Structure to design on (403 residues):
């Protein structure tokens, strides 16, 4: 089989070299220049560089022109799902096409599909449509969110007290992008959970529920964020599967977010990908399943290649945390208030940038790009949640001049 990998995620994260038999299959990696160093080493494969400056699908198609048609197109990055679908359509390769991928990328299409399945989701509308009408045309009037239709990491998301305030902000040109690339959405009150897992032919291989400590929007605004694994009850699994079927996700990993409300779960959004931050590591600690490599193995070998799954006990929960630095206005930082926490017995991994080590000035959850990040556990969920809550209330990160 000829496997085309649209490379973006490093081999250290995916384990391509150990997951794909490069002697049994013909493998072609197409990579942008800044990612070449993260390709797998020591395996026989075709490596093609694309410019990395234009349309991804167009660059990949140009790169593979003249070589044998692939039998399988592999991508693991959320940013390349649509591009991979376009490549499959152009080359006539089996797998998800643009219409299949869109419900898991476009937030309006996504929520419409979930609502059509009879599941609760926030009211929403295209921003341009809402601007063309009176604010009273929307079925809610209170707290409101504006967000990019295909965004990630809460980048470009903003919150307002009322619908009218949100529309006024949009009219005043306060959004980072074209108005037709945004949606307007009802704010739903309640804690947010994320459900992560892996599917094979529509059946769950492993599923794990976690509850956020903080919110992704607050993280985008500069506050710490983490999550702690909680019990994954059958009702949550069934509800999650209903959501996934509604948007057409039946193979591979998923990262679904939902509100816990007195009336039950309310869908927020879902991605056909693994979760960010340290979700992959904490998921593997709890279940024994390394989602990225398991995803690739299932794509290459088929649904029969399911990994073994362990069942963690109630005292074996794990969590992750990240303290952001992108709002500092500086590439260097000064950290205070963390010393009492870094040696706590629940800390499994702690990464902290030194005074002479730069942090990223864009939103990121990568351990090595933020002031502090880590993994906690194993311990009962309340213990981990209390640790994160206390730590977030105590730690401060301030800009510094650097070396």
């Amino acid at each position: 089989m000829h496997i085309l990998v649209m490379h973006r995620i490093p081999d250290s994260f995916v384990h391509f070299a150990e997951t794909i038999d490069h002697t049994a299959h013909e493998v072609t990696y197409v990579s942008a220049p800044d990612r070449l160093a993260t390709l797998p080493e020591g395996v026989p494969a075709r490596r093609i560089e694309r410019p990395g400056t234009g349309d991804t699908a167009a660059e990949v198609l140009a790169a593979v022109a003249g070589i044998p048609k692939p039998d399988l197109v592999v991508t693991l990055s959320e940013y390349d799902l649509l591009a991979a679908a376009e490549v499959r359509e152009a080359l006539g390769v089996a797998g998800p096409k643009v219409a299949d991928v869109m419900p898991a990328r476009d937030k309006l299409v996504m929520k419409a599909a979930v609502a059509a399945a009879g599941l609760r989701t926030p009211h929403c509308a295209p921003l341009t449509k809402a601007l063309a009408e009176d604010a009273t045309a929307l079925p809610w009037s209170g707290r409101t969110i504006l967000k990019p239709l295909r965004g990630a990491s809460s980048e470009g998301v903003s919150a307002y007290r009322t619908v009218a305030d949100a529309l006024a902000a949009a009219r005043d040109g306060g959004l980072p992008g074209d108005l037709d690339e945004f949606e307007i959405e009802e704010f739903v009150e309640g804690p947010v959970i994320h459900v992560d897992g892996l599917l094979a032919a529509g059946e769950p291989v492993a599923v794990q529920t976690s509850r956020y400590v903080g919110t992704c929007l607050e993280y985008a605004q500069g506050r710490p964020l983490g999550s702690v694994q909680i019990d994954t009850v059958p009702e949550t699994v069934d509800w999650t599967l209903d959501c996934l079927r509604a948007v057409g996700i039946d193979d591979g990993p998923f990262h679904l977010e939902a509100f816990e409300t007195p009336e039950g779960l309310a869908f927020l959004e879902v991605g056909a990908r693994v979760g960010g931050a340290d979700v992959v590591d904490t998921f593997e600690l709890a279940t024994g399943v390394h989602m990225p490599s398991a995803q690739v193995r299932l794509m290459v070998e088929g649904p029969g290649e399911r990994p073994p799954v362990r069942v963690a006990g109630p005292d074996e929960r794990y969590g992750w945390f990240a303290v952001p630095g992108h709002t500092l206005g500086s590439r260097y930082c000064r950290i205070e208030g963390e010393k009492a926490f870094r040696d706590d017995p629940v800390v499994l991994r702690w990464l902290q940038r030194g005074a002479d080590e730069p942090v990223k000035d864009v939103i990121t959850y990568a351990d090595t790009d933020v002031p502090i990040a880590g993994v906690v556990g194993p311990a009962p969920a309340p213990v981990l949640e209390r640790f994160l809550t206390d730590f977030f209330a105590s730690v401060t990160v301030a800009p510094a001049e650097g070396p």
Remarks:
- The domain at 123-186 is CATH 3.30.1490 (Dna Ligase; domain 1).
- The radius of gyration is 22 Å.
- The chain has a mean pLDDT of 94.
- The longest strand covers residues 203-213.
